[in-house]
Structures are given as structure tokens and as C-alpha cells.
Amino acid sequence: MNPAAKYAILDLDGTLLPGHTSRHYLQVLVDDGTCDRQAGLSCLDAIAQFAAAEKAPSGLLDEIYRLYALAMKGASVAQARFAAEKTWRASRGTLFSFVPELLSLLRASGYRIHLLSGNHDFPVQEAAIDLGLSGGHGAVVEVADGRFTGRLLSAPGAAGGKLAFVRCLADAVGFDAENSLAIGNSASDAEIFACVGKAVAFEPDAELRRLAAGQPWHVVDRRTILRVCARLTARATAA
């Protein structure tokens, strides 16, 4: 059994930066001719509906993931990675101003920092590499012989997706739940909040704010996140 590790698990969109990285990535894939154009455009329409809805219609997120997997069928992994690099280069300048200090604080406190996002996997990996994090994980489509098969393997934004990842992490490398920390802004992040000792809801959407009521979770905004996280990481370091 591996010794348990103390993790900081961070969401990406709406938590470290505004906007929807997945929308940008799909647009690059479509514009470059990397993915199936019709399925890609349909996926973009579905993402726009999801972003505009105060409460997304039932099944819409599953449909987004289905369309994404369909759009990627037959696409080259090398081309998809190139599109992810372009996407992250364009997105990194929009990071919230507190992010560098937050990451420095977490590193100094001994956390392994991991991005866990409902976005597509390659842009999340690019973000994690660029930011010097321990890893990044998003939606994964099966690959065979250097091309995507169209079979969706994981969808962290869907119900149970983020919790499943944390369980896999615990099985693979050990997971110090009590001293680990999670930061996110949407209802899917509540799955992780329920299994870590330190949960931070950053400018939460209406559903996550509702779920946070009565929970020992910390609700913050871009003015207060560093102060709250400094307090929480000091406790974890002392422990």
C-alpha cells in the first residue's frame, strides 16, 4: 500500500479562468478540419446551450460528451494535441490574477496539485504541464493506432465522474482525504467536496451554492480565496 498523499484538486473553467475552454478547443478542431465538422458544430451548439442555462436540461451534458466523442472519431491524436496547444496558448492569458500566488501557496504547503475538469483531456493536460502541476485529467476518448475511436472512456463533468477519478487516485497512489483540498465552482465539484477535509467553492453557481448550505465548505470569491486558502493550508501543514 502506497503512503497517502495530500492533494489539491482544482477545477479549471470558472475556477482558474473565466469562460469555456472546451468551446474554444472544439472551435479550433472544427476550423482546422481535425474533427468531424457536423458533429463538432452540434457539440458547440450544445455547449452554448449548457453555458446559457441557469439549470441545464436533463441529459444535455451527456449529449455534449456523446457529440464530442462522435466528432473525434477518426481524428489524429497528433492533430488534436496541436489544437490543444493552440487552445491553451490563447486561454492562459485569461487566468485569474490570484492563480500564480494560489499555486505557490499550495506547493509550499506540500500539496500535489492536480487539475480535474469536465473539459476535454488534451487542453487540461496542456494547462497542467504549463502550470507545473502534478497532472491533469479531463474527458477521454479511446485511441487506437494513433486515432480516436469515438468511444468515450471518461467524462469527469458527468454525474459520478469526478468522484470516480478520486477513487482511482486513492487506489493508485494513496489519498490523504482529511488533509486534501478541492476548489471548484459547479455542482460536479460537490462530489469531491464530500470526500476531502478542505473544500472551497469559488464563486459557485446556483446549484453548488445551494448544496453548500449547511456544509463545512468555504464559499469564496476572487478577493477572498487567497486568504481562506492560506488559513486552510496552514492547518494542513500543522497537521
Strands in their spatial order, largest beta sheet: 4-3-2-1-5-6-7
**Structural class category:** alpha/beta
Biggest sheet descriptor: 7 strands, mixed
Under CATH, the topology can be stated as: Rossmann fold
Tell the overall outline. globular
Report the count of strand segments: 7
Q: What portion of the residues fall into strands of 2 or more residues?
A: 15-25%
| Highest-level CATH class | Alpha Beta
Count of helix runs: 10
Radius of gyration: 17 Å
Distance between the termini: 22 Å
Unreliable segments of 5+ consecutive residues? none
Helix content: 40-55%
- Give helix and strand order, one letter per element, not per position: EHHHHHEHEEHEHEHEH
| CATH architecture heading | 3-Layer(aba) Sandwich
State mean pLDDT (0 to 100 scale).
93
CATH homologous group name: HAD superfamily/HAD-like
Q: Number of domains in the coordinates?
A: 1
What is the strand and helix layout of this fold?
Elements lengths: L6 E4 L10 H12 L4 H16 L7 H13 L4 H15 L7 H10 L3 E9 H10 L4 E10 L2 E8 L6 H13 L7 E4 L5 H4 L4 E5 L3 H7 L5 E3 L4 H14 L1
Parallel strand pairs: 1-2, 1-5, 2-3, 5-6, 6-7
Antiparallel strand pairs: 3-4
Helix pairs in contact: 1-2, 1-4, 2-3, 4-6, 5-10
Structure in words:
InterPro entries: HAD-like_SerB, HAD-like_sf, HAD_sf. Pfam families: HAD. Belongs to the HAD-like hydrolase superfamily. SerB family. This protein is of the alpha/beta class. The chain has a single domain (7-233), classed as HAD superfamily/HAD-like (Rossmann fold, 3-Layer(aba) Sandwich), CATH 3.40.50.1000. Helices cover 48% and strands 18% of the residues. The protein is built from ten helices and seven strands. It has helices at 21-32, 37-52, 60-72, 77-91, 99-108, 121-130, 161-173, 190-193, 206-212, 225-238, and strands at 7-10, 112-120, 135-144, 147-154, 181-184, 198-202, 218-220. Strands 4-3-2-1-5-6-7 form a seven-stranded mixed beta sheet, sandwiched between helices. Helix 6 links the parallel strand 2 (112-120) and strand 3 (135-144). Helix 4 (77-91) packs across helix 6 (121-130) and helix 5 packs parallel to helix 10. The protein is globular. The mean pLDDT is 93.
